[in-house]
Amino acid sequence: MTSISPRFGPVQGGIDVTFSGERFPTDITLYNITIDGINCPVISAEEESVTCTTGKRPGLVDSSLTIYIKG
Description:
single chain, mainly beta, Immunoglobulin-like, 4-stranded antiparallel sheet
């Protein structure tokens, strides 16, 4: 992974976040992404980028990011 865009968003969620890099799987079912402990469903995946849509958070929380790719 080489970049994340946008880096920040509202607590209401609904923002598409794109992770750029190399050799990402193109099957969206292989991903489990969480941002600040909230699921971020993947809406598109290409070899050089993956995009998910943020969910609503209960307020300001410590930042965290987990990207799990099956296989």
